[in-house]
Amino acid sequence: MWHPVVKFLIMKIKAIGLVSGGLDSIIATCLMLEQGIEVIPVMFVSPFFHSEYMKEKEIDFMGLKAKIIRVGDDYLSLVKNPEFGYGAGMNPCIDCKIYMVKKGAEIMAKEKASFIFTGEVLDQRPFSQRQKFFDIIEKKSGMEGKILRPLSALLLKPTIPEIEKIVNREKLLAISGRSRKQQLLIAQEKGIKTYLPPAGGCLLTDRIYAGKIKELFEKRQQCDLDDAELIKHGRVFWYNSILIVIGRNECENKIILNLTKKNDVSLVIKNVPSPLCIIRGNEINNEVIEYAKEKVLTYTKQEKLKKVPSLLWEIKKTLAPYEEKY
Ligand code: SF4
Predict the structure, then answer these.
(1) Domains of the chain
(2) Rounded to two decimals, what is the model's pTM?
(3) How much distance in Å is there from the Cα of 199 to the middle of ligand 1?
(4) Which tens digit of pLDDT belongs to each residue from 144-187?
(5) 47 CA distance to ligand 1 centroid (A)?
(6) In angstroms, what CA-CA distances link 26 with 20, 32, 80, 190?
(7) CA max distance for the chain
């Protein structure tokens, strides 16, 4: 077996970076690259975060090709029933991080990388970025000692790559807490100008969306990521367990139309400009249709309705084969 130092000299050390595109993950990546470590960035996408990259396989991250991992319905199950509970909204941060680290570990094995690193900062968030939660995440993901947090490393116990000296601990940082002062100074020093907002704008932390997803879980036991995506747009109504979404403008009408899948019913008034309505669920009967029509009429300009002697409704069932979107 090679001595770690010899190993470092003869082969490039690879690390998997779980990145969000936020400043912290950019600084963490810089710190690794400056140590000559080959970084494979990995970014997770879902209807809740980074959904703009949903169709990509990889994206540019600091000039590196970041792998895109689309979370599956297993992630949604975890949002429904998190072992470690929620943060302020419906964000199951600890379970989410365990999920991401496990996926990262799979890539680590495939790429023969030595460890995973993240841009997490000790005590930056009360839920999930405390030492005890770091320990839980490592233990539950089976990655004890293999998750390096370069921004706070000097405040944490040394990880295996530091002990084996494939990472120089002395060049790591001791940042903690919510203040972003140090990170902003580092960004200035390193000329980092573009980065995403902290937490990557995770919708699960958003009070309004959290309410919608909670309702989705209550009303529709068998919901999936397509439903989680659909309720992001338009006005959302429920008729028992039937989901009804009405576009608020032309742009939303197009978005929700694009999100329809097999057996969804779309409803629109043909002879008056009106919002588009998508109905999803089992047993969409006449009662549901009448309820949805009322809602559409509510959001159609009354003066336009008065101009026509009778309304011409277009009600269509989506017949296209179900296309797996996530
Ligand atoms: S904020 Fe969202 S993406 Fe970030 S750890 Fe929590 S649940 Fe996961």
Answers:
(1) 4-203 (3.40.50.620), 233-317 (no CATH)
(2) 0.90
(3) 7
(4) 999 999 999 999 999 999 999 999 999 999 999 999 999 999 99
(5) 12
(6) 8, 10, 31, 10
(7) 87
